[in-house]
Amino acid sequence: MAQAIPINLQVVLVEPAGPLNVGSVARLCANFGIDGLRLVAPRCDPLGEEARRMAVHGVELLERASLWPTLEAALADCDRVVATSGRLEGPPLPLLPPADALAWLLEGSASPQADPVPQPKMAPGALVFGREDRGLANGELLQAGRLLQIGTGPSYSSLNLSHAVAVVLHELHTLRRGERSLTASPPPTAAEGAMVWANPCRRHDLEAALADAEALLLEVGFLLPHTSRARMAKLRALLQRAQVSEGEVALLRGMVCQLRWASRRRARSESDT
Ligand code: SAH
User: Of the candidates 9, 2, 13, 22, which has an alpha carbon nearest to the alpha carbon of residue 40?
Assistant: First the structure.
């Protein structure tokens, strides 16, 4: 049988309320070789009797599930993040079919064909699932580089949480084992190789760059406190689509830093005259 593509994959559940769902998801993670389960502010006892009963042989994975206060904290060390949504209206990024979004997630673990240099320690990839009652807010979806939607009939698009996890992990498993080809993007040519395969930066670096940029843009009056949230959401969507690499995020931060310095120096010299 083909070997699975190696990648550190984390399933993230945001504020799950049902212990049966949490236990079922732990079982699914064990079924499909997921490395870890991250729970953001669970609204149930993830180690209670009901969750354990549903986890069956996934109980070890359930016991080592990590707890996080916010989605941002849970994703800070990840580079590729795919978030899932059953809602049809108003997504902040395009909704992709499972195979496309997951092929992008797995691209992070494939080695460049043109330049087989050993990879530095790989950042985890994450698959994010929302609350049973209201899914993920747009601000949370925007923390992902890709959005995934499981196609359903048009009149009822929302699956039960653990059923959605089952469909997604089965598709991922099929792709990882090479039983279906990765079709999200064609393999890079030698010249494109270094660029295309540059991994996206980790989430915390992008958030830090956005926080720096927001502070500067408020300082120079491009953003106003009451418009800042909406405009920064647009900028975040743009950067997520662009799949900014480590070097590019450092470039952005350097630019912001220099602009802040220049703007403060100008303000000082104007106040001296
Ligand atoms: N009423 C909620 C339903 C949430 S279902 C809503 O409006 O979003 C709980 C979670 O299951 C969702 O946040 C999503 O992570 C996943 N899910 C449900 N249906 C899905 C679908 N069709 N495609 C992808 N994920 C889905």
Answer: 13
